[in-house]
Amino acid sequence: MFLTREEERILAGEKGVGSQRAMELLLAIGKIYDAERLVPVTSAHLSGVSYKTIGDGGLDFLMQMAEDARVSVRTTLNPAGMDRERWGEMGVSPEFARKQTAIIDTYAKMGVEANCTCTPYLTGNTPRQGETIAWAESSALSYVNSVLDARTNREGGPGALAAAIVGKTPMYGLHLEENRHATVVIEAEVQDEITDYSLLGHAVGLRLGGAVPYFKGIRPDVNGLKTLAAAMAAAGSVALFHVEGITPKASAQKLESLERVQIGREEIERAKDSLTTGRDPDLIALGCPHLSRMEMKMLASRLDGRRKRPDAPEVWFCTSRTVRTWCPKETAVLERFGKVLCDTCMIVAPIEPAHKCTATNSAKACTYLPGLCSQKVICDSYSALLEMIL
C-alpha cells in the first residue's frame, strides 16, 4: 500500500508509539482489503466502549494507546455499559462502574467526546454528503452511508480508533463509488410503524447478508430509517441501502437487471414470531437505537395522564444525554413509568443478573439479547409494549 512521506514518519514512530500502533493497524487492514492508499477522514465514531464487551484486555489496550496518542478528527463514542449518573439504579456493581468509568475517561484523555450514543448523527456528529469518515457502530454507519451519503466501511472499534488518531483510513469497499450501487430490489409492504421497519430490516438482513438493497414501496421517516438500518446490520451485514424517493442516491440507481425480492405482511409477521422466545417480561427496554427527540415526544404523549400498573415490569427508555436535555417535559412524564437512561442500552449493559425476559420493539435488540445478555425476548410494537405497563 502506498504511503506518503508523512505516513511513513508516523509508521516509523516519529509521532509517538500510539500513533505508530494506529498506523500499523491501518496498514494491516489496508493490506487485507488490497487498498492502494489511505484517504483522509473528517470524523470517527467508536464502538468498544462497554466494559461488558471489551473487558480488562480492552481497557489495557486503550490505556496503552492513551499514553501518547490523541485523535486528530472529531470522534464520538458508542453506548457504555451503564448510565454514568444512575448506574446504581440499574443494579450495576461498583467494580463494573469503576472500570466502565475508566474506559470512558481513557477515551476522553485521547480527545474523544464522551457522549456515549449509537445515534451521534442526531446529536451533532452529522457528516455531510460525500464526506469520508470512519465509523464503527453498525446501525449508525449504515444510516450515514445511506441517508446522508457519507462514506464509511463497516469499521471495527480498534480500526475506527486508529483512523481517528491518524486522521485517515484505507481506501477500499464503500469508499469506492463502484461498490455503492444497489445490488437487489426489495418490493416491501409495511405499515407506517417503527417496529414494522425494524422487522423488515431483520427479514432483509437474514435473506441478503451484505447486499446493497434498493427499497420500493416504503416511506420511512428518520426513525424508520434508523431502525431499518439497525436491524439489517444486526441480522446481516448491510452497510448501505437506498430507498426510492427518500435517500440521496436512490434516483441514480440502475435497477433493470437486478433481482427483485418481495417482502409483505406474511414475512413481517414471520420475522416477529421468530424473534420472540419468551413470555411475561420483567424488563421493557425501548431505545435501540437510542430514542430520538421525536420518539421521546411520541411516547410521552401516549403516556401523559395515564397510570402505571402496580405489577408492571421495569421500564427503560434509552436515549442520548443530549436528547434527554432537549426533552425535559417528556422526560418528566416518562420517569413516572420507568427510567430514562443515557449513555447505555439494554444490549451492552449487565442486565442478566436482574432480568431474564426483555420485551422491546427493536429487532436488533432481539437479535443480540439472547447471546449477549442471556435473555428470552419478546418483540412487539410500541403500542403493545406500552399496554403491558398500563
Q: How would you describe this structure in keywords?
A:
390 residues; alpha/beta; Aconitase, domain 3; 5-stranded parallel β-sheet; globular
Describe this structure as you would to a colleague.
- The structure is a single chain.
- This protein has 390 residues and is α/β, with parallel strands linked by helices.
- It folds into 3 domains: 5-177, Aconitase, domain 3 (2-Layer Sandwich); 181-273, no CATH class; 276-387, 2-Layer Sandwich (Aconitase, domain 3), CATH 3.30.499.10.
- Helices cover 39% and strands 15% of the residues.
- It has helices at 5-11, 17-32, 51-65, 94-109, 138-146, 157-166, 194-208, 222-235, 265-275, 293-303, 321-326, 328-334, 363-373, 382-387; strands at 38-40, 43-46, 74-77, 134-135, 168-170, 184-188, 213-216, 242-243, 259-263, 283-291, 314-319, 339-342, 357-360, 376-379.
- Strand 10, helix 10 and strand 11 (314-319) form a beta-alpha-beta unit.
- The longest helix has 16 residues, at 17-32.
- The N and C termini lie far apart (60 Å).
- The model has no long low-confidence stretch (mean pLDDT 97).
